[in-house]
Amino acid sequence: MNAKRERGYAMIAAIVGVAAFGFIAFQLIAQDRGVLAEVRGESEQAKLIAACNAGLTMAIHGLADPDPTQRWGIDGRSRTGSFNGIALTVTVEDERGKIPLNGIIEEEARQLFQMAGATGTQLDTLTDSFEDWQDVDNTARPAGAEAPYYAPFGYKPRNAGFHTIGELRMVKGMTDDIYNRVAPASTVFFGESGGFSEQTSQVLALEVLGEEGPNSLEVQQRVAQLSGSAATPTSLIKASYVARTLTVRVEARENGAYMKRSAIIELTGNAADPYWFRYLD
Questions:
Q1: Predicted confidence band at 21 (pLDDT cuts at 50, 70, 90)?
Q2: Residue 243's closest CA among 53, 61, 63?
Q3: CA end-to-end span of the chain
Q4: Fewest Cβ atoms closer than 10 Å to its Cβ: which of 106, 150, 168, 182?
């Protein structure tokens, strides 16, 4: 068993120990204070947190496995399992398979919002406001917005690239429905390890940035892959993920309770410092 794998198992074992210790401590506090029901709720939350952390650890270990046949995929399909009796769903997404908000041109931004459901005036407003949010001037486009529009809301456009996906919520014309379609297919962590990856793309991203466009055979194939009815390309199975930015999403469920965590990581290929967290919620 190699050193990386041993470290991964050690981290998981440590999490198990923390969860068990926390559970015992909560029970003792409850007996002393007579608030067993409340503390049981806190104990269940601690167990879910530990399970989510374990899921992140297992994903990082699986992504860094030197054996291509054992290495976890990054094609966006979910894995299921359990930790300490808690059901886990773990999904790994390739940030290179998403739309780089700070790297698309105006026509691509317009298509993004159109494919997400915007039409007419709303589409014009979103496209112009998206561009105004990033450009360095203070002159609003015909349907866009600059600082005077946002002043009553207590903020102003960044006049630079987006720092987070959540900033999209602040752009003039954005609605919850449009945001909920755009956000999962967008990124500000595209990285520098290559261009857009159609093989690991989100469907909306492929519709916007793919060579064949919406309703194409490649889009249909990608939908089939994500549903599990088509195989993962063999080139991905053999690929190394070093210097590739990846999102890991973990969902934990037990007896109706639910918790999720996500992290954006980058594998370094350095045994002494094998991965970096770019984001952790």
A1: very low
A2: 63
A3: 31
A4: 106
- DSSP category for residue 70: T
Sequence-ordered list of residues with C-beta below 8 angstroms from that of 20, at least 6 positions apart, any chain: none
Is the pLDDT confidence value at 38 over 80? no
Backbone φ, ψ for residue 251 (5° rounding):
-120, 130
Amino acid at 148: P
Per-residue 3-state assignment (H helix, E strand, C coil) for 12-42 = HHHHHHHHHHHHHHHHHHHHHHCCHHHHHHH
Quote the strand ranges of the chain, DSSP E: 75-83, 86-94, 99-100, 186-187, 245-254, 257-267, 275-280
Q: Are 30 and 40 in contact (CB under 8 A)?
A: yes
Domains and CATH numbers, the chain: 3-97+232-280 (no CATH), 104-184 (1.10.40.60)
Q: Exposed (0-12), middle (13-18) or buried (19+): which is 186, by Cβ within 10 Å?
A: buried
Tens of pLDDT along 112-135? 999 999 999 999 999 999 999 999
**Which pair of structure tokens corresponds to residue 164?**
């987070």
